[in-house]
Design a protein that fits this description.
With 424 residues, the chain is of the alpha+beta class. It is 39% helix and 20% strand. It has helices at residues 15-34, 48-55, 60-65, 84-93, 138-153, 169-185, 192-200, 214-218, 229-244, 289-292, 307-313, 333-349, 364-373, 384-389, 408-423, and strands spanning 38-39, 45-47, 67-70, 76-79, 102-111, 123-132, 160-165, 250-251, 263-270, 279-285, 300-306, 326-330, 355-357, 378-382, 392-396, 404-406. The strands form 3 sheets. An 8-stranded mixed β-sheet has the order 1-5-6-11-10-9-7-8. Strand 9 and strand 10 (279-285) form a beta hairpin. Helix 1 packs antiparallel against helix 5 and helix 5 packs parallel to helix 9. Adenosine-5'-triphosphate binds next to strand 6, strand 10, strand 11 and helix 11.
């Protein structure tokens, strides 16, 4: 074994991290449900074809980042690098096209073989929302408004919205030719990446982060000026709707997004607080995707956000888990058996009871230390003598008070009081 470290680019979510993640997911799921998005989960791996057919042969994900392997049955499968292709596949596999339109919300791990750094991992987590069977631009605006509401619900400010329209596949084809001509005239000034992209996918040159390329890119023809009429109208209406709803945004004509499946609306929410990993949430319209997978033409739009980046931005830590109401300490073999049965009976009777049973034996002194450290309100002690008498010793741990032997009925009453008090 290489070492006992987790594999490069992966990390453990210990309880505190887990709580922060879970809180974000809960708030997002709740927010999405207020807009009519239903939670779903698709498999973590799919046939490789699902991604290959949709994300684009020249996309970074397909060319460099997929975790692909042949399973024992000889099937080529891939750990999902993103969520949208799986949702589209699920729509087709489950015959859901007849129930369109549909709105889905998902959360889960994604896998990309990337160079790990802060905010960029090989296993990371996304939340996503997809609206299928909607041509927009009303739903485009609503998805963006929903994300903005989520930032507010999380107490997050300072995220900037950038917006662009990629037009239809046909109008992009014409624009592509203009780009090839422009960048072809400046071939000598292109960096290596851009030279490669010029032949394969010239739009991606606009996405280059190389500072030396920026002046050249700034002089390139702008996609916004070459939109087809319908896409231009769609974009104008989206912008007007966002303005009417008071959402600030900037049109970034260079925003092209890395995946081939997008058409028309694309957007990103960006932060200045995470260095190079500025994109927190990204999305766009993918009107051709379902058809590309073999389904009926289905206009659709969605976004996905990176949990790790978002959690990093959300300052307040999630509240700690509530302390137990009681900590039950059995003393001796016979008491241990009886204690576990008693604990189950108490849980049956008091649904909200948070009860930790002391397991692992040891002295009364060390057990009481653990009881105290658990934060419990009460210690419940059950020894051989108590067992014979049919009582449990109840000892307050957080406030003054005598310890007291109690029969079952009185014990339940005392625990009920304790639950009430903690609730208040
Ligand atoms: P980037 O430009 O940062 O590589 P991307 O365009 O590849 O992002 P998307 O495929 O749109 O990202 O995924 C949606 C969101 O998922 C991103 O905005 C980002 O917050 C997050 N994300 C993407 N890749 C990673 C990764 N390797 N590790 C952590 N988060 C990621
Ligand atoms: Mg990427």
């Amino acid at each position: 074994m290489a070492s006992l470290q987790p594999a490069r680019g992966t990390h453990d979510l210990l309880p505190e991290d887990f709580r922060r993640h879970a809180r974000v997911i809960d708030i997002a799921r709740e927010t999405a449900s207020l807009y009519g998005f239903a939670p779903i989960a698709t498999p973590i791996f799919e046939f490789t074809e699902v991604f290959q057919r949709t994300l684009g042969d020249t996309s970074d994900i397909v060319t460099k980042e997929m975790y692909t392997f042949t399973d024992k049955g000889g099937e080529q499968v891939t750990l999902r690098p993103e969520g949208t292709a799986g949702v589209a596949r699920a729509l087709i596999s489950n015959g859901l096209s007849q129930h369109l339109p549909l709105k889905y919300f998902y959360a889960g791990p994604m896998f990309r073989y990337e160079r790990p750094q802060k905010g960029r991992y090989r296993q990371f987590h996304q939340l996503g929302a997809e609206a299928l069977g909607y041509a927009g631009p009303d739903v485009d605006a609503e998805l963006i408004l929903m994300s903005a509401r989520l930032w507010r619900a999380l107490g997050l400010d300072g995220l900037r919205l950038e917006l662009n329209s990629l037009g239809t596949a046909a109008s992009r084809q014409a624009y592509r030719a203009l780009l090839v001509e422009y960048f072809g005239d400046h071939r000598a000034s292109l960096d290596e990446d851009s030279q490669r992209r010029l032949g394969q996918n010239p739009l991606r040159i606009l996405d280059s982060k190389n500072p030396e390329m920026q002046a050249l890119i700034a002089g390139a023809p702008s996609l916004t000026d070459h939109l087809d009429e319908e896409s231009a109208a769609h974009f104008a209406q989206l912008r007007a709707t966002l303005e009417a709803a008071g959402v600030d945004y900037r049109v970034n004509p260079r925003l092209v997004r890395g995946l081939d499946y997008y058409s028309r609306t694309v957007f990103e929410w960006l932060t200045d607080r995470l260095g190079a990993q500025a994109a927190v949430c990204s999305g766009g319209r993918y009107d051709g995707l379902v058809e590309q997978l073999g389904g009926r033409p289905t206009p659709a739009i969605g976004w996905a956000l990176g949990m790790e980046r978002l959690v990093e931005l959300v300052q307040d830590s999630a509240p700690p888990p509530p302390a137990p109401h009681a900590y039950l300490v059995p003393l001796g073999g016979a008491a241990e058996q009886a204690a576990l049965a008693l604990a189950e009976a108490l849980r049956d009777e008091l649904g909200e009871l948070r009860l930790v049973t002391h397991c692992g034996g040891g002295s009364l002194k060390s057990a009481m230390k653990k009881a105290d450290r658990s934060g419990a309100e009460l210690a419940l002690i059950l020894g051989e003598e108590e067992l014979r008498q049919g009582v449990v010793v109840v000892k307050p741990l957080r406030r003054e008070g005598e310890q007291q032997g109690m029969e079952r009925g009185a014990l339940v009453g005392r625990l009920r009081e304790c639950i009430q008090a903690r609730r208040a």
